[in-house]
Amino acid sequence: MPKLWNETIDAHRAAVREAILDTTAQLVAEGGLRAVTMSQIADRVGIGRATLYKYFSDAEAVLFAWHERQVSEHLRQLEGIGDQGGTAAERLTALLQAYAGIARRRHGGESAALLHQGEHITHAERHLQSMLEPLVSEAAAVGDLRGDVPPGELVQYCLHALTAAAGLTSEAAVGRLVAVTLDGLRPVP
Are 88 and 138 in contact (CB under 8 A)? Predict the structure, then answer.
């Protein structure tokens, strides 16, 4: 087949896949993770169920792909924040605030727990740690954060503490949680 034909087919497949994931995002927003069905997705995208099954084996596979895309988008957002100017402590604060905000929007329940397992989450956690650890090291080196605990341990403390944001109901509560978490990083007098 000519190269142009292959590129056109590949672009079409990518567009259909993105439409499926966009629709899945809408369905999750409307009814939660358990409400997503293959029939709903196919109807909303405007494709037949047989076509949908060519892309994904079941609703769980669609949800995993959607979640993987969400996690990648969150990491890009966090990278952008980490690349902004300011001191290491200021960038760390901004990153932790954004991370807690993301954690707050996390969907709960058994299905969410299932989505938060797997290689893409392990990769994302490592990536996040590699973003935060240099900031913690730099801030500790200038005395803004405690230096008596290894930076990797402080990062783990922050990430685990901020998972509590999933149960919070307001941005103000998220801000308080981040402040309390950051207080645990302050130098010991």
Answer: yes
Residues 136 and 162: beta-carbon distance below 8 Å: no
pTM for the complete prediction?
0.80
Alpha helices, DSSP H only, in 56-150?
A: 59-82, 88-104, 110-115, 119-141
Residues 94-117 pLDDT 10s: 999 999 998 887 755 555 666 667
Q: Any idea where the domains of the chain sit in the sequence? A: 1-56, 60-189
Q: Which CATH number fits domain 1-56: 2.40.30.10, 3.40.30.10, 1.10.10.60, 1.25.40.10?
A: 1.10.10.60
pLDDT tens for each residue of 53-63? 999 999 999 99
